[in-house]
Amino acid sequence: MALPIPLVGRLRLPVVAAPMFLVSGPELVIAACRAGVIGAFPALNRRSTEGLGEWLETIAGALTPADAPYAVNLIVHRTNARLAADLEVVVAHRVPVVITSLGAAAEVVDAIHSYGGVVFHDVTTAAHARKAAGAGVDGLILVAAGAGGHAGALSPFALMAEVRRTFAGTILLAGAITSGSDVLAARAMGADLAYLGTRFVATTESLASDDYRDQVVAAGAADIVHTASVSTIPANFLRRSLELAGLDPAAVPGPVDLGHLTRPSRADAKAWRDIWSAGHGVAGIDDVLPVAELVDRLAQEYDDARRRLFAEG
Ligand SMILES: Cc1cc2nc3c(=O)[nH]c(=O)nc-3n(C[C@H](O)[C@H](O)[C@H](O)COP(=O)(O)O)c2cc1C
Q1: In this prediction, what percent of the chain has a pLDDT beyond 70?
Q2: What b/e string do you get for 125-141 counting C-beta neighbours within 10 Å, with b at 16 or more?
């Protein structure tokens, strides 16, 4: 259990502000890194590889060695026609941390290792974890049940127990982590880093609309619908946004096979843009605040929880 060398001593708190489609941009990434946690964004949040290069320049230009490193998320899948070109730009900019999703490919890992970059790969099952470990990734992101985006179906305890048995690298844990005491709990379970998505939707620097942020603040865990109907892969969405898109959440089927796609009924409603993703963590989110204040609060809660536990002996 350890952080990869390039990350040692670079973080104020063992936290990653996870990459989120249409939500994370340079402002959020820069604010997170300046606050001392890893900020990340999906490469596909820009419509072109040139656009990706521009964002990388903006981010690298704004950060100093005193800030935490930043990360880019690459979708490693045959449907991502931009992968080769985006990877080239990522290598040219020597992006410190690359988060791969869907596929873990040794060629991608080798390209990032060639300049000293770190690769984390997200998984929802132990079988995928074994495959990614075989591709040589530095760390595995265990996406447990209740996470925002393409959530897993397993308890974090079960996933952690299974993966730890065979993987000695860095472990990141994701799924409904919203407070500093949650971060400490993830560390206690054996994670090196906590991976927080939904909590960062409700920050002033996120690209989410005010309505989206308000829904995250207003929602409880029961307002999250887990379905494959919106994005083909099972994902968690805000019930209210499904309703506003003309879908009846009660009629939305549960997880189904990949490829079983039913389209939203409102012809122009688009997944992620109009139907908003969030995880069960909405239960612990009561406000929208600047990233710096959020990280201060997480750090305070983390320290308080640690002191409380030690005091209890
Ligand atoms: C709106 C939204 C969009 C997301 N988009 C992506 C994405 O493009 N790529 C990715 O790897 N993960 C994506 N995720 C998943 C997050 O990176 C992370 O795994 C997850 O949010 C962690 O769970 P939490 O939301 O409960 O904290 C997304 C999550 C949300 C909420």
Answers
A1: 94
A2: bbebbeebbebbbbbbb
CA neighbor of 98 nearest in space, from 107, 106, 90: 90
* Structure confidence at residue 261 as a pLDDT band (50, 70, 90): very low
Cβ pair 278, 20 in contact under 8 A: no
Which pLDDT value is given to residue 268? 64
> Which residue's alpha carbon is nearest to atom 15 within ligand 1?
149
Ligand 1 center–CA 268 separation, angstroms:
23
pTM above 0.90, yes or no: yes
- Please, where are the H alpha helices in 68-125? 83-92, 106-113
Ligand 1 pocket (Cβ < 6 Å) reads: 18-21, 23, 42, 73, 101, 122, 143, 147-149, 174-177, 195-199, 201, 277-279, 281
Q: Do residues 102 and 130 touch, judged by C-beta distance below 8 A?
A: no
pLDDT at 124 over 90: yes
pLDDT above 90: residue 234: no
Domains of the chain: 10-207+286-312 (3.20.20.70), 220-277 (no CATH)
Instruction: Determine the Cα–Cα distance for residues 299 and 8; give it in Å rounded to an integer.
Output: 18
For residue 126, give the nearest of 138, 109, 143 by alpha carbon.
143
Query: What is the CA(310)–ligand 1 centre distance, in A?
Result: 33
Residue 107 has a pLDDT of: 96
Nearest CA to ligand 1 atom 23: 147
